[in-house]
Amino acid sequence: MEVIKHWIDQSDVYLLILGGRYGSIDQETGKSYTHLEYEYALEKEIPIFSCVLRDPDKRAMNKGDINKYLERDNFTKYQDFKKLVTSKMVRFWETSKDIEKSIILTLKDFERCEKIIGWMRGGQQTDSSLIEEKAKLTKKNKELEELLKRERSLYNQKLTKIQSQQKELEQSYQIKINQLQQQLTEAEGQIRKIAEIKDNLQYRSYTIENEVHKQLSKKESQINQLQETIQQLQSSVQKNTTKDVEFTEKIELKSEKGIDYTKLRDLLAAGKWKEADQQTTNVMLKVMGKTTWWSVEISDIDNFPCDDLQTIDQLWVNYSNGKFGFSVQKKIYVDKLGGMKDYNQEIWHEFCDQVGWRKGGNYVSYENLSFELSDITSIGHLPSWGVGREFGGCLGVGCKVSSFAQRLVTCRI
């Protein structure tokens, strides 16, 4: 026990894998050494995580040796110990693969704890090169922020200039339209006068009547020309008043996996939202080396390259004017609803309701999603992550979106 206590004192985290046996007994206390270890770790307030076998009876039957895998001699002590363990933070396992996943996921959580030293033993010395590197990165970050500030200022100046020019053009066209409408009114008045003359001169000879017809036809031709000119000017005004100001900051199509995002960019620029959504699924699966969402593992999501996530998100946010994109969805799922990496069905359903993936308590099929950018389209509606094409709960897209949300937080997107 002295050796065991020394090891625990030198540890950051105490990890217990509890199977179906109680373990060797310390004659002095009557408790197993594992039980004593656990209580000592509690006493020292060391962070504890336990992987507990869910069904010892089932595992013993599968192994074919009940006495070897199931506690017989100290069953009550085992049950008391298991009750103590499960009152703390645990993950349950049924196969050795479950143990591996549980440890990886939990150690990821412990990594974020600033009190845990990790491998920084041996004097706790800080590498001066890391300090220098941090200073360089801080300086570089400040320079980039200043550059971004200047670029945004330049963008705002150009945008203001374009808007001013557009307003002047609209005013100029409106003046021309008013002038033409006045001419049209005058021409219509002349037509009415000519028609009156025609009525008054019907008793006159055919020659006079024919001349009136010629004048009338000439004026009608002038009116048609004026109306066509007005329509052309109105069409030109409409184009200039409805056309979006195209001044988009350049997006670098970065990819750690060498993925070409040109097609995705062109589809989004053309407003082909459904094709862009399907292309997003294709490139994401290609980055992870998968062919379907069903084959994607949590580890694939945890290791998804940040550069690729940022490129895809920037394209969606840019061309949807901030309505679509991963970062938009993260603000709802994480910042607004408090979603974490671990799947929470209530939060998942609330998220699907807010982005329009569920209506009336039912998931919307993929074909019935809204692939358009309009005032009635829900914020964060796209990309769809394949919702509607696959089961939405924790066995399908739900858990994976939760993991992607955590990945977005990690990548600071």
What does this structure look like?
The chain folds into 3 domains: 2-111, no CATH class; 130-242; 262-410, no CATH class. Helix 2 (33-43) links the parallel strand 1 and strand 2. It contains 15 helices and 5 strands. The chain starts with a helix and ends with a helix. The protein has a 3-stranded parallel sheet with strand order 1-2-3, sandwiched between helices. The longest helix has 73 residues, at 128-200. By secondary structure, the chain is mainly alpha-helical.
Topology:
Blueprint: H1 2-9, E1 14-18, H2 33-43, E2 48-53, H3 56-63, H4 66-69, H5 75-86, E3 90-93, H6 96-111, H7 128-200, H8 206-242, H9 262-269, H10 273-288, H11 298-302, H12 306-319, H13 326-336, H14 345-355, E4 358-359, E5 362-363, H15 397-410
Parallel strand pairs: 1-2, 2-3
Antiparallel strand pairs: 4-5
List keywords for this structure.
single chain, 413 residues, mainly alpha, 3 domains, three-stranded parallel sheet, 5 strands
Quick structural summary:
The protein is mainly α and 413 residues long. It has helices spanning 2-9, 33-43, 56-63, 66-69, 75-86, 96-111, 128-200, 206-242, 262-269, 273-288, 298-302, 306-319, 326-336, 345-355, 397-410; strands at residues 14-18, 48-53, 90-93, 358-359, 362-363. It contains 15 helices and five strands.
